[in-house]
Write a structure and sequence with these properties.
The protein is α/β, with parallel strands linked by helices and 225 residues long. The protein has one domain: 4-Layer Sandwich (CNF1/YfiH-like putative cysteine hydrolases), CATH 3.60.140.10. 21% of the residues lie in helices and 29% in strands. The chain contains 6 helices and 14 strands. The chain has helices spanning 25-34, 107-111, 114-126, 150-153, 172-182, 207-210; strands at 9-13, 41-45, 53-55, 63-65, 70-73, 78-84, 88-94, 99-105, 133-137, 147-148, 161-164, 167-170, 190-192, 218-224. The radius of gyration is 17 Å and the shape is globular.
């Protein structure tokens, strides 16, 4: 799942076969060992379904950062991670300034424009040029299955909804792409996975599909080489 032509970063996401990641430290450690990334300081966003971005620059051991849904760094010693089970993993890379970021976006994060907060951090903290920032939206629940009620659909424009058989569905990745384009990100710098976590039951966990008593997730990661 590499979307960036520049080979200066690590990027990927676990599959169902790697086991649930949020509840199992053992699974996470084994997964990163298999990726030859166990020498990195692994920093995870704690996930609160909001839009807070944390700059990672002075952490000396692997840990989870509470009260945030996005992490960003320009240091190669870190591997940035989030867990997902239908929500959007959004990867960012500034190929000139050598900065990476990773955001977790459910519908609340999308509605609160978490991608705008990440892009603003690139600009304000790292002096990034918008033309240098590449973005990839990884596997997530697509509008084929993301059915919502009015409390969710009312957070977005009517044009962001599709009605089928009297039910309302939302395309979150399209909304995120529109947000990025409004921020003047180059269209050619935005890529979206065509994989739906709900549809691919043999490959991905899906909270909407499985409704597990204990949340089962994949883990997404990005880091500089």
């Amino acid at each position: 799942m590499n979307f960036i032509s520049n080979q200066n970063i690590y990027l990927g996401m676990s599959n169902k076969k790697d086991g649930p990641m949020k509840s199992s430290l053992e699974n996470r450690l084994l997964f990163f060992e298999n990726q030859n990334l166990d020498n990195k300081i692994i920093v995870s966003a704690g996930l609160v379904h909001e839009n807070r971005v944390i700059i990672i620059d002075d952490i000396n051991k692997s840990q989870s950062i509470l009260d945030c849904d996005a992490v960003i760094t320009n240091q190669s010693k870190y591997l940035l991670t989030i867990t997902v089970a239908d929500c959007l993993p959004i990867y960012f890379y500034d190929k000139n300034k050598k900065v990476v970021a990773l955001a977790h976006a459910g519908w609340r994060g999308v509605a609160s424009k978490i991608v705008e907060e990440v892009i603003n951090t690139f600009i304000n903290h790292y002096d990034s040029n918008l033309n240098d920032i590449e973005i990839f939206i990884g596997p997530h629940i697509k509008d084929c299955h993301f059915e919502v009620k009015n409390d969710v659909s009312s957070q977005f424009k009517i044009s962001d909804s599709t009605i089928r058989d009297g039910k309302t569905y939302i395309n979150l990745s399209k909304i995120v792409k529109d947000q990025l384009l409004q921020l003047n990100i180059n269209n050619d710098n935005i890529s979206i996975s065509d994989e739906c976590t709900y549809c691919l039951s043999n490959k991905y966990f899906s909270y909407r599909r499985d409704k597990p008593q204990e949340l089962e997730t994949m883990i997404a990661y990005i880091g500089l080489k």
